[in-house]
């Protein structure tokens, strides 16, 4: 990694909305043995970011917001076996420390999944919150079993039938991310 510093966006107090955000220079992090360094291509805001900014949830400041990111692996920790430099990935960063509004972020390898070529960086970063929301709605509220033991939801018709390959692929992607 040639760069020693990078641009980031952070805030140092609650409230203020977008006016509370500041552009800063921060050191480029180095991955620990179980982490990957990702060059960020897209990041996705989610409800926890709004709650932190409003003061409903209170992490330490200054804070770089956003915990769902997509990008390219540029460095791997010594014990990381599933990823290599150049891999396109989607990662969940620590919810309370955040760190996604940066040029580079470190992510735990067990909270990172490969991003298929047909999924853009923006879609990948947004898929995490959308997938978690859909999963919660289907499993917890609708009582649908997604493990193959009960009725399945078709992403094309909404009726209780076998699910489509697209839905199955997205669900497996989500389960892989959550299961690590």
Q: Strands, helices and their partners?
A:
Blueprint (H helix, E strand, L loop, with lengths): L4 E6 L11 E6 L7 E10 L2 H8 L13 E9 L11 E5 L11 E5 L3 E3 L6 H21 L23 H15 L1
Antiparallel strand pairs: 1-2, 3-4, 3-6, 4-5, 5-7
Structure description:
The chain is an alpha+beta fold and 180 residues long. Helix content is 24%, strand content 24%. The chain is globular and about 50 Å long. 28% of the residues are buried.
User: In total, how many beta strands?
Assistant: 7
Largest sheet: 5 strands, antiparallel
Taken as a percent bin, the fraction of beta residues is 15-25%
Structural class based on helices, strands and sheet pairing: alpha+beta
Walk across the major sheet and give the strand order: 6-3-4-5-7
* Rg, Å, rounded: 18 Å
* Number of helices in the DSSP assignment: 3
């Amino acid at each position: 990694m040639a760069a020693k510093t990078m641009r980031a966006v952070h805030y140092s107090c609650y409230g203020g909305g977008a006016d509370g955000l500041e552009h800063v220079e921060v050191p480029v992090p180095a991955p620990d043995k179980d982490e990957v360094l990702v060059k960020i291509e897209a990041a996705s805001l989610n409800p926890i970011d709004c709650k932190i900014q409003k003061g409903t949830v209170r992490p330490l400041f200054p804070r770089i917001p956003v915990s769902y990111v997509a990008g390219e692996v540029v460095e791997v920790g010594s014990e990381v076996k599933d990823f290599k430099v150049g891999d396109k990935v989607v990662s969940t960063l620590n919810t309370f420390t955040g760190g996604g509004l940066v040029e580079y972020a470190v992510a735990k390898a067990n909270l990172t999944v490969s991003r298929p070529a047909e999924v853009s960086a923006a879609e990948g970063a947004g898929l995490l919150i959308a997938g978690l929301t859909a999963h919660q709605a289907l499993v917890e509220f609708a009582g649908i079993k997604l493990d193959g033991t009960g009725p399945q939801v078709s992403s094309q018709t909404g009726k209780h039938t076998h699910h489509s390959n697209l839905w199955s692929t997205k669900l497996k992607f989500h389960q892989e991310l959550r299961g690590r």
